[in-house]
Fold these 2 entries.
Entry 1:
Amino acid sequence: QKEVEQNSGPLSVPEGAIASLNCTYSDRGSQSFFWYRQYSGKSPELIMSIYSNGDKEDGRFTAQLNKASQYVSLLIRDSQPSDSATYLCAVRGSNDYKLSFGAGTTVTVRA
Amino acid sequence: GAVVSQHPSWVICKSGTSVKIECRSLDFQATTMFWYRQFPKQSLMLMATSNEGSKATYEQGVEKDKFLINHASLTLSTLTVTSAHPEDSSFYICSAYPGGSEAFFGQGTRLTVV
């Protein structure tokens, strides 16, 4: 079983719609969870971090964490063509500082 | 925000030569730096973890004699790909971790071995 798994893509949504991305992780002791956006040929950039159960909102982005279910999600509201990218879920393990990344979900926002 | 500078952003080298990639934290000290490799359409794969002044810890399957990592100061880590071959062509990304929650990524280095 992979440490971090993301829902398979690609995901295509119309402009203005909500894009929903899901991620599950295997290390029950994990405490830190991150969503990165990566444009083609570029390095990942952090868009959200979440550490406690519940929702965290930042602009058009909402991260949701449920540690009991070992599940973290990202919602992108009012999707824009500039949101078209690959979104990586990353989890910091309980025993060290390493980040484990999911395979990524590619999102395409159709104008 | 914290800035990590990675250099060069791209490099083309001949098979059998060595290439050095630098990763610098510009406005903070990084107790730990991570090196990742990313092949096309794949996720980031951790290659090694380095702490200042000590030997790097390599992930399973990563050849430590081929990928030399030096973390000589709290602001600089280098990755040297020795005797590069075409299969080493990839996108190499460093990440600097100052402690706390967030790690900061460099811009990445596109290595092409011909």
Entry 2:
Amino acid sequence: RKEVEQDPGPFNVPEGATVAFNCTYSNSASQSFFWYRQDCRKEPKLLMSVYSSGNEDGRFTAQLNRASQYISLLIRDSKLSDSATYLCVVNENSGYALNFGKGTSLLVTP
Amino acid sequence: DVKVTQSSRYLVKRTGEKVFLECVQDMDHENMFWYRQDPGLGLRLIYFSYDVKMKEKGDIPEGYSVSREKKERFSLILESASTNQTSMYLCGIRDRGTYEQYFGPGTRLTVT
């Protein structure tokens, strides 16, 4: 299985800060990309899909760079409630399910 | 919203027992899956099902089997539980059009 790589962190940031996560994937034929959020001892939940042109959802911006095979997630004006693990996820199109990175841990402090 | 339920949140079993984990979805999705998640290893796919009675092995199928007799229900079976199968088990569905995956709340299984 092709790899999805993320910096495990942890990223410790103060409230209000802007933080960015990057993720690289090895399969150039990958077609669909996602960011998931996982709280401690809970299931992963879809945060947002990542589109080729980039997309934004409130304080969250996702970007895709196919040439360099990386995906990014930017969180602006961090909240305490953003503390979680963020999983980068790639669909390899020929695969039966999504390929998950191991996640990046974020801790937002007061 | 998609709703995926799992039969147990926490389960403790003894080595050698046969264990059944059940997953039920309410949205008529063809694609269902089972992962396990372990610290440092991330999510690893055990089995995938793309229709009733249809299944495909994932990355780590050894020691597991699955059953999908009805579209809404996908069961994971540990034929003879071992301590290295202590893990968080996550099931869910994948949307056929968008490839988005939605998970149930997970079952934390401990094998003693």
